[in-house]
Amino acid sequence: MRISQLFYQTLKEVPRDAQIPSHQLMFRAGMIQQLASGIYNYLPLAQKSLRKIETIIREELEKKGCQEVLLPVVQPAELWEKSGRWGYYGPELLRFKDRKNGDFCLGPTHEEVITDMVSKVLKSYKQLPWNLFQIQGKFRDEVRPRFGLMRGREFIMKDGYSFDTDEEASKETYWKMYEAYTAIFKRCGLTFRAVDAATGNIGGDMSHEFQVLAKSGEDMILSCDSCDYAANAEKASTPRTASNLTAEGQLPLEDIHTPGSRTIEEVSRFLKKDGSDFIKSIVYMIDDEAVLVLIRGDMEINESKLQTLCEANAVFLADDQTVLDVTGADTGFAGPVGLRKEIKIVADYSVTSSLNLVSGANRNDYHKINVNYSRDFKADLLGDLSFASAGDPCPKCAGKLEEHRGIEVGQVFYLGTKYSIPMECNYLDKDGKAHPAVMGCYGIGVGRTLAASIEQNHDEDGIIWPMAISPFEAVILPLQMNKEEVVEAGNSLYNNLVAAGIDVALDDREERAGFKFKDADLIGYPIQIIIGARSLEAGDVEIKIRKTGEKKNVPLDEIEMFVQKFIREEKEI
């Protein structure tokens, strides 16, 4: 590509909302344009990198026997109603009606559509396994789209779905996909960790996220300093169990008037107690059921763990009227003793480990003191509902957990029969008996992978691309466009490299040398081939390696061999 013909424009300034390096640099390098909040045009430089990522994805998936399909973006509500997710997915699901008043949505994911499609073809166990994938645009109506391609509303995603006969076969497929994802992100030149993760709205009971390590990452990752344990902060655990409190030291239960004190901070000041002396009591809606959730006062409820523990489709805070109906008091005065209505209680292990705690009294402006587990209340369900943190013991060994920041670029899920049962995706076994297919789900954020690469690979001058996903592998920079020998050398070298299969750009613009150098560093071409009149007299050209800044003179007749060797070695790293 001759840069004089390339559709792009480098910029000195970026929009004020471009807060992280990838967002800033993709604007400045002329890779993206914002069309609306969280919605972007991808210009040729971005598109070339995206296509290279997609090629890597396709090659590695095809090695595992995956087959590519393409499904509609617009999905009918009836499929989501059949799976049970139409009422649970939340406001990120963009819903609309067609001219016949039918309910539809823009697909944020395709579990329902793919399962429906397979159910129309699947008849016998002999047809399985199947592993189908697509690379396609998705839409999620994010409440706060930000960080460019990191959290947009419209985005490019590879989503895949496997169908097997039983759990053993499905989990074997799961680990094959784990291996494929590992290979994909290695080939993309990324430093990443695969971590144990929560399943969220997708569902299932086993999942791993692939997190690119970067200081700007939104996700907190906890990993052991001694073993291979690693997990997203939403899923990370630490060894904890229920405690058996003895009656010794338990004081009588009392109601205390706490006027004007509603929050744990306010009541702790009023009673001169620490947050760890309290039970935090919060009414949640677990699917359609009001549930009281308890945790020690100095801790926060991990809603992902709560959803998993309760095997729920959705978890969200109850409204004030529901709290009043259940407790008999306003929000802020709930507690496990003396509820107006008998409801399910779900508790973190922490409420079982301390004596004489403080809780709401289910009565405005009153709290109870000396509340003790077992004596005064019991939980219907106990578990780990807290966030692990750095310094906590590892759940697998004697090591300690450490914190890292990460950007999620891919996730694999074991779904089981969550979708195949309601969607009636069944096969007949050898005896003619029907069984639901056992499923897995596998996603990669293609645009996110592009942005995450920039977050991990940049400096103050611009992008430093991994060779495998760089828009161009090399750029030729003729410095004196008014000198015939420089122009001819540039054109000749360009034609030779193109013929050799090298993805090369030629900066044939009538611009100053300094301008070309700045653009080359900003865009991040891995190899810069600098042709100047003086070096040509000696039969050399200068090579600059963007990643290291290293410069060397190479004979003109050896450039092609040098560039091919360098590209090959970089892609093998």
Model description:
With 573 residues, this protein is α+β, with helices and mostly antiparallel strands. The protein folds into three domains: 3-237 and 401-455, BirA Bifunctional Protein, domain 2, CATH 3.30.930.10; 254-383, YbaK protein (Alpha-Beta Complex); 472-572, Rossmann fold, CATH 3.40.50. 25% of the residues lie in helices and 28% in strands. The protein is built from 13 helices and 31 strands. The strands form eight sheets. Strands 3, 7, 8, 9, 10, 11, 12, 21 and 24 form a nine-stranded mixed beta sheet that branches. The protein is elongated and about 95 Å long. The model has no long low-confidence stretch (mean pLDDT 94). Pfam families: HGTP_anticodon (PF03129), tRNA-synt_2b (PF00587), tRNA_edit (PF04073). One of its GO terms (biological process) is prolyl-tRNA aminoacylation. GO terms for molecular function: aminoacyl-tRNA deacylase activity; ATP binding; proline-tRNA ligase activity. Its EC number is 6.1.1.15. Belongs to the class-II aminoacyl-tRNA synthetase family. ProS type 1 subfamily.
